[in-house]
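Dock pyridoxal-5'-phosphate; give full complex structure.
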Amino acid sequence: MFDVQKVRAQFPILSQTVNGKPLVYFDNGATAQKPQVVIDAISKYYSEINANIHRGVHTLSQLATDAYEVSRNTIQAHLNAKYNHEIVFTSGTTQGINLVASGFAAFVKEGDEVMVSALEHHSNIVPWQFLCEKTGAKLVVIPMNEKGELIISEFDKLLSDKTKIVAVNHISNALGTVNPVKYIVAKAHEVGAAVLIDGAQATPHLRPDVQDLDCDFYVFSGHKVCGPTGTGILYGKESWLNQLPPYMGGGEMIKEVTFEKTTYADLPHKFEAGTPNIAGGIVLGTAINYMNGIGFDNIARYEQELLDYGTKRLLEIEGLKIYGTSEHKASVISFNIEGIHPYDIGTIIDKLGVAVRTGHHCAQPIMNYFNIPGTIRASFAFYNTKEEIDIFVEAVKKAQMMLS
Ligand SMILES: *Cc1c(COP(=O)(O)O)cnc(C)c1O
């Protein structure tokens, strides 16, 4: 049985007060809090095995290397990737997307098309714009509807043999929409296009199966799955990673270097130049094990309850509008209150101990679509409670009263 109080006790930060009030942390879409096992694992690494990896013959270096590779295997199993060399450690989702977009210049030429969706985070837009500027390819956008869902019939029409890659998120960070990524992959493959899925917002809520999705690339950030900041994963199909040129040059990514010619290391090291975030990479495995210990079925079921309850309670507030009303939604509620700037609500409820995100959520095209400057976004994690939702709703009501 899932016991939220037992889970909460594992997160030291959740028992803190902020501005003299108990912390209600509803900014999980920006970053997740860390359980004690993750905090302890970082300390243990630096206290007991700190050494550089893949280069020393000495004992600590081997211990560190082993722990790093065990973490890679943990993540391979978690994503159900076919090979462990399809798992590349990165600094986060942003770096993973930039790595692929930069390398894709080798496969894209003038007149080709690169497709993103209207629901993307800036980090899944701008790297593709770089690619288009560099190659003369055209950026094509899958449109969305009023509910914040992708218009799939339009996607079908936009696809053609000019499409070289489609980059979409699995779940929208701004609206919570769950996108039909499996369908998108299957359709894109029919025209020979590759697909990159931005899983930054999905991995905290579900366990992706990359072989079942059949995606070519899947990226996510460690810090959103209870892991350390500055960590992330790029999954790529072996055949794509073999074709893709390296992103950064340096130590560890080479086979042989002479001034005439350098040959690259085998996967995944070809993409892991320099000393990585060793502690972070190891502890990302700890975080993934922790999440699997809670169980993604439990997480999904419980978060759905929070989403339903939060939606119902917020809709009691007069003049409140929720953006993102897709049937398939993660536990993210984006909203505004008539006549009040989101920033003002965020500032007042912070004084009451409630942490939410306000603004455009790095997704300005979505805000432009709705013709709003931004929203207030409450994003729930499995360690949040209905009692916290009550405190939050009362805080929003109080802010509304003060501001109108
Ligand atoms: C957070 C997020 C990103 C960026 O992740 P970083 O950890 O900042 O690199 C990209 N896409 C989505 C959907 C996100 O939620």
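Observed: The pocket of pyridoxal-5'-phosphate is lined by residues 92-94, 121, 123-124, 169, 173, 198, 200-201, 221 (CB under 6 Å).
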